[in-house]
Write a structure and sequence with these properties.
504 residues, alpha/beta, Rossmann fold, UDP-N-acetylmuramoyl-L-alanine:D-glutamate ligase, 2 domains, eleven-stranded mixed sheet, seven-stranded parallel sheet, 18 helices, 18 strands, elongated, binds ligand NAX, binds adenosine-5'-diphosphate, binds potassium ion, metal ion binding, isomerase
């Protein structure tokens, strides 16, 4: 699914108004109906509703919702933040209409008139939407804080008031919503970890915007959905043999971190690879052979860390390096040799990325078939500090282009930046995956997919989606608290079944 900017969404409204055609007021009525239906279905309309409106079209939505729910006998109180200015045409028209249904409309001119909100109350936040053009201050900022600090359930219309659709609102005042009802497509602001506590659960409601605009409009970012992954996932030939699914090589583990090698190896095997060889420190031989009998193990000459690259790299279809390898100088040489000699796709994770950030000149050896999978801290070590999540995404896109490789920025909604400018946010995954070793599992999956012939973009998009989906299945079974990284691998099978359903 495409992610649109606030400007693109505005243009989509206008395109629909001109080409459906439909009057702007009628489109607002449709928006309000989608929200009212959701509130009725979720039984929020049975509770005392406090609808806070600004004087723009977001406020117009709020007024129309108020009127529609009054016809359903809801208990509705409307508050309009008085700015002294006239509202938009659609706001004014909806206010005239609302006066025919209720007199329970209050104009807020100072904080003295803010209502006391209780636990059972439901607030509809229709103060400001995508028209936000500056950070909140003054009375509106006070009102947003008053509502956010109350025990009431807060449901924001389109965006939580104070949140910019396309830029950071870090350190600004913003409504803390329990739910955000938005329309048709995700806005970029919903996908950043720094905004997650303000958005609550996001619900995309269908309001019948014109499909031709969606088709014709180029979006800078997309969201990976089930059908995106389904389109990539290849069906297995019934007569296939293991030679068809590639031979992967993982450089993983060192003394005290053989577990990372075990986690990435198991995930690599569960991703469908034909053969797997793990190159690890000598001390890892017995634990690996015992824990992962399906893998072949090639031991390094050093007891505790990696000191030499594999003798014959040509045998392998794809290589993964990083989980638990440590930062020894000799291990840095292994990474250098590998980048110099290997022409097959390579996944670089964890300490391979940390070594890359220590020895910056190694970056010149990266090539189009490399995938880098930093978490935000590794990203900062590699590419420097950023002020907020929006800046990090922009830096990731710049670096993917500059280094000519795929960057998977791991986070709440992991972000994939490709050298050709394509970029995706992931839609799967949960906070239960914030547990040691989850990243090692992803390295194994990506290496396994590359070995099977998926290109770097396909492997990143499919692998990140499957990893998150397996994490979601694991959390459903085990709880977010109790799940551990190996549970993600255990549920990879269920994730594959889900993704390949339409391919069978
Ligand atoms: N026909 C349409 O145009 C539709 C509009 N829709 C709704 O309209 C919204 C956008 O409406 P608008 O463009 O009128 O924008 P808003 O309703 O977000 O309000 C914009 C107004 O707020 C002022 N403002 C901006 N930042 C402020 C701040 N920090 N403090 C105080 N005032 C501030 C602006 O100067 C402007 O007057 C969407 O979010 C959506 O909810 C939907 O109903 C879909 C259809
Ligand atoms: N809150 C979250 N929501 C979704 N995914 C998450 C969340 N926290 C972590 N993850 C995922 O879990 C993985 C963690 O990777 P990483 O930080 O490298 O872990 P480790 O170093 O322990 O292996 C990433 O793929 C990340 O996207
Ligand atoms: K709002």
């Amino acid at each position: 699914m495409k992610i649109f900017t606030a400007e693109q969404i505005r243009n989509w409204d206008w395109y629909t108004i001109a080409n459906e055609p439909i009057a702007s007021l009628q489109l607002m009525e449709r928006v309000a109906a989608a929200c009212s239906n959701w509130l009725l279905e979720q039984r929020y309309a049975q509770k005392p509703l406090h609808i806070f409106c600004g004087k723009g079209n977001n406020g117009g939505d709020g007024l129309a919702i108020a009127r529609q729910l009054l016809t359903q006998d809801a208990d509705v109180t409307v508050y309009i933040l008085e700015t002294g200015k006239k509202g938009t045409d659609d706001f004014q028209r909806n206010l005239e209409l609302l006066h025919k249904y209720t007199s329970n409309i209050h104009f807020l001119q100072s904080a003295d008139f803010f209502p006391i909100l209780q636990l059972q109350d439901v607030v509809i936040d229709a103060l400001l939407g995508t028209g936000l053009d500056r950070p909140l201050e003054g009375l509106i900022a006070e009102l947003v804080q008053h509502i956010s600090n109350s025990p009431a359930t807060v449901i924001s219309i389109d965006v939580p008031t104070g949140m910019f659709a396309d830029k950071s609102c870090k350190d600004c005042i913003c409504m803390r919503a329990d739910h955000t009802l938005s329309f048709e497509v995700y806005k970029q602001c919903f996908l950043y970890a720094e905004n997650a506590e303000y958005c609550g659960s996001i619900h995309l409601l269908h309001i019948g915007l014109h499909p031709a605009y969606y088709e014709a409009t180029i979006a800078a970012h997309q969201i990976i959905e089930s059908k995106t992954a389904q389109a990539i996932c290849k069906k297995r030939n019934a007569a296939a043999h293991k030679g068809n699914f590639g031979h992967a090589l993982l450089f993983a583990g060192s003394y005290g971190k053989t577990g990372a090698a075990v986690l990435s190896s198991k995930a690599c095997l569960r991703s469908g690879v034909g053969l797997l060889t793990v190159h690890t420190a000598k001390c890892g031989y017995i634990p690996l052979q015992t824990a992962v009998p399906e893998a072949m193990v090639e031991t390094d000459s050093n007891e505790q860390h990696l000191s030499a690259a594999s003798a014959d790299l040509l045998r392998y279809a794809a290589i993964g390096i990083g989980p638990g390898i440590g930062l020894h100088e000799e291990t840095a040489n292994v990474l250098m040799q590998l980048l110099q000699q290997a022409h097959q796709p390579i996944v670089l994770d964890a300490d391979a990325l940390n070594l890359l950030s220590i020895k910056k000149d190694l970056s010149a050896l990266l090539h189009t078939d490399c995938i880098l999978t930093p978490h935000p801290k590794e990203f900062e070590r590699l590419f420097g500090k950023v002020a907020n999540d929006f800046e990090r995404i922009e830096r990731a896109k710049e670096k993917a282009e500059e280094l000519n490789c795929v960057i998977v920025l791991k986070s709440h909604h992991s972000f994939i930046a490709c050298p050709d400018g394509n970029a995706w946010f992931n839609s799967t995954g949960n906070a239960g995956m914030a547990t040691a070793g989850s990243g090692d599992v992803l390295t194994g999956i990506l290496t396994g997919l590359l070995a099977q012939g998926y290109n770097t973009t396909e492997a990143a998009v499919l692998g990140v989606y499957l990893h998150g989906l397996a994490g979601d299945f694991a959390a459903a079974e085990q709880s977010q608290e109790a799940m551990i990284a190996s549970d993600i691998t255990a549920f990879l099978g269920k994730a594959f079944l889900h993704v390949s359903q339409t391919n069978v």
